[in-house]
Design brief:
Length: 488
Amino acid sequence: MAEDSETKKVFDAEAAASLMKELRGTYASGKTRSYEWRVAQLKNLMKIVDDHEKDILDAIRADLSKPEQESYIAEISIIKSSCTRALGELNRWMKPEKVKTSITTFPSSAEIVSEPLGVVLIIGAWNFPLLLALDPAIGAIAAGNAVVLKPSELCPATSSLIAKLVGKYLDSSCIKVVEGAVAETSALLEQKWDKIFFTGSGRVGRIVMAAAAKHLTPVALELGGKCPVVVDSDINLPVAIRRIAGGKWASNNGQACIAPDYIITTKDFAPKLIDALKHELEAWYGKDPLESKDLAHIVNSNHFARLAKLLDDDKVSGKIIHGGQRDKANLKFAPTILLDVPEDSLVMNEEIFGPLLPILTVDKLEDSFDMITSRGKPLAAYLFTNNKKLKEKFVKTVSAGGLVINDTVLHFAEKTLPFGGVGESGMGSYHGKFSYEAFSHRKSVLYRGFAGDASARYPPYSDRKLKLLKALLSGSVVGVILALIGWS
């Protein structure tokens, strides 16, 4: 066995440039623009999840110890839904949109034509390693782009499987996967893309945006933030608790960008809420949650150490009222509830992205809105109440990527809603038709014949011509008539 054959080829800036040149050539041929090509790729992408469901679930389990049910619901089912919707709607999405024209350009007609951006880069995230690579790709393919996928290296089993299956099922002349870590991602970011779609942390998002700025490349950044949950007392508490706990711990053990990051409730209601949370957690994960097979582990030792640092902060360590157990060797971290942690503690000054859930208390629930708006805009914000006025004030006051009333995280699965951040939680959105539009340029087209060529547009200028132009530009039919007949 030759040693050279065992050496993996290095993916550096030169390799990235070569890849880009190849994809530019393929895209220029027009291959990706046809309806037939797009449909064929989407159908084959659907076959990936249909034919290899067990392989996918096993890979995610190997990377994150994520329960099969969580992986199916939050990754496979959403990809299937996205593909189904794109296949059903693509013909309509691709049709030019007819729009009205004004007297200013009369006689004319106009339309908006969607065209692909070109060659795009999608950088996935580790917390939902299949979904956050393939779901954006559905929009990019549907829009007719050539695509490079960069799965997360923190989930090597899933990354390897994505590379293998995409290479087998999709058109490798137009859709490619690049595996690797920082060096490979850096090499990709040196290239001039037509769009970069990144899901991950704000820290890395800034690096991606800085690289894109060198080429004036547009970006979509799906980041995160501290997603608050405001809980009123006039609610169905058992249902609310299940939905909060489900969004927190049954979503990759809190390692989700839209997972509840902290709860705000009143001092009077907090004891009931806490008792209900403790009861539900014990029912789900037992008295020793570190032994539960229904709880995902922390992705790696670095993230485990980060969470441990948050919990061991002197300002927080005495505030633990449930959980706190951890197993460093197996990267297991128990669901943990903290009560009334200080605003200046570490856990309240960065996105937790793990199983720690602080509960903050206020005298009046309305005070919670000021607490939320004093921080950066989160990717999601949640409110549990039956109070109509409180709902209205929440929607009007709280700026976030998305809001959910009386549930958590479910807006991610609704394809009629755009999913994305605002401010430091990101920019751009996707899902359903919004995914198609995220990777398209809406090109305006104005059609005119040779009739109706107004001499007032051209020199030599005169007062009469100016009156006619003013009438045309203001859209006044009466003004045009008066100007033409010389009425002053």
